[in-house]
Each structure stands twice: as C-alpha cells, then as structure tokens.
Amino acid sequence: MATGQTTSTKATILRVGAEIVHNQGFNNTGIQEILKAAGVPKGSFYFYFQSKNDFGLQLIDFYAQILNARLDEAAARSDLSALNRLRTFFAGFTALFAENKCRGGCPIGNMAQEMGDLNQDFRERLQSVYADLQSRMARLLEQAQKERELDPGLQVRELAGFLLNAWQGAMVQMKVDKSTAPLQAFERMIFDCFLALDSKRTEDVSQL
User: Are 67 and 129 in the same domain?
Assistant: First the structure.
C-alpha cells in the first residue's frame, strides 16, 4: 500500500471516528461502526492502530490539533490586542456550538470526563494536551501584560489554567441547558469584568 494512501486512510478513520466519539462517547463507539462510516474494509483497523485504546490516544492528539490550530489562528490576528485575540478564540467556539445546537461540547473535556479516571495512558495524554494548551494561552496573556492590558504581577500560567477550567465548566452547563448562555456569561465575566478590572488597575498604575 502506498504511503500517501496509508496516511489518507488513517486520517479518514480519525476524522470519522472523531465525529462519532464526540457525539456518543468513546466507550459507546465500536471499531466496526467507525470503519463502516469511514468506508474502510473490516479488519483494516489494526493495520493503522494497535488497539482501540491506541486509536483513542491518537484521537486525543487529533482533537488537540484542532484546538491548537484555532488558538494559533486567533493568536495571529495582528489587528487585535492580545486579550481580544484570546477572546476571539473562545467566541469562535461559542459560535460553533450554537451552529451545532449545543451538542457535543469540548471533545477533550468529554474524553477527560469519560476516560481520565479509568486509564492511566489516557490521563497522561490528556494532561499533556491541557498543559500545552495552557502554555499557549499563557503566552497570549504574557503578551497582554507587555501591552499593559494586564497586571504584570499576575501569574499568567495560573490564570490560563483558571480560564481553561472555567471554560470547561461552562461547556458542561451548556450541554445541560442546551444553550450557549453559559459560554456567553463566561466570556462577559472574564473579559468585560475580571480581566477588564485588571486592565484598569494596570492603566492607573502606569499613570502614577
């Protein structure tokens, strides 16, 4: 089998599997179900993945690539301040969830809730993904400090972790309420209240 075809087939399995797992969970999804939806012959799965767990671990990486790409896209917005770049990242997902009628939520968060307590390999991979996303957000927050949008004394990595945790909680509530209102409240409270107050304090100090 040609390398290009192998790569393409594996990518198809991951893409199709990601959608199914996102909608119904990892444990509720069968390998044959994924292969049938992907149009891949039965028995081909183990050519690309050692086991269902190996597929799940690679699926976490697949989801992480999507999250990181969206954050990188927002971070590249030279027309916006650092805080507004970060806000654009969150707002983009709110719009996406609205289009999807509030189904699914965050695939990484879903996987963490389902598998984080059950499998050490999953827990470690999820921990690594969260740490990377936290670092990426921290870099934007550090830039916001340089732009005098945030108190320079704030610990940006800790703040990034708080934002991620609050966002995940808002997405859980979104699924319960079937409304993006929790995500909209998260955005308002963080950017219009909490971080806005920090920005005002920083501005006041700079004028002393």
Answer: yes
